[in-house]
Design a protein that fits this description.
Distance between the termini: 41 Å
Strand order of the largest sheet: 1-2
Low-confidence stretches: 136-142
Order of helices and strands: HHHEEHHH
Bound molecules: zinc ion
Radius of gyration: 16 Å
Structural class: mainly alpha
Number of helices: 6
Mean pLDDT: 86
């Protein structure tokens, strides 16, 4: 309802589901949607996902958590620990919750080192929030 006007009603279908639940639903039964999935806020020049920004990486890991190892939209779902640390040293605001949601499924699939990198970022975010900074700058991150 956030974008509704007096003449136009916008319905946010599925808002009760988390991002991971939505990705799981696509993975379970909508391969065409998986192939056409576009999430990149920067929008690569060719209109595809860059595959390296926080949102692209998070989506790749959501796919991995859903049991999808590769898609036409992103290529390999697995993200290296080094790339994750470089691109997402610390999540901000609600992305920390999205990252946390990934952990059980990724751990179940055996990606323990990646889980530790994700948890380290979440811990930095929580520590920064306790310090009263909602969007702490790079000074907290080495
Ligand atoms: Zn991107």
């Amino acid at each position: 309802m956030l974008f509704s006007t007096q003449r136009t009603r916008v319905i946010h279908e599925g808002s009760r589901f988390s991002r991971l639940e939505k990705v799981r639903a696509l993975a379970a039964g909508w391969p065409a949607a998986l192939a056409a999935l576009r999430v990149c806020p920067g929008g690569a020049a060719d209109g595809l996902n860059c595959g390296r920004c926080e949102k692209c990486l998070r989506t790749r890991l959501e796919l991995l958590a859903a049991g999808i190892d590769e898609t036409a939209a992103f290529g390999r779902s697995l993200v290296s620990v080094e790339l994750w640390r470089e691109a997402v040293p610390m999540p901000i605001a609600e992305t920390a919750l999205h990252h946390e949601e990934l952990l059980p499924a990724l751990r179940e699939r055996g990606y323990d080192e990646l889980c530790r990198a994700i948890e380290a970022g979440i811990a930095l975010y929580r520590k920064a929030r306790v310090g009263g900074q909602d969007r702490p700058e790079a000074g907290l991150v080495n």
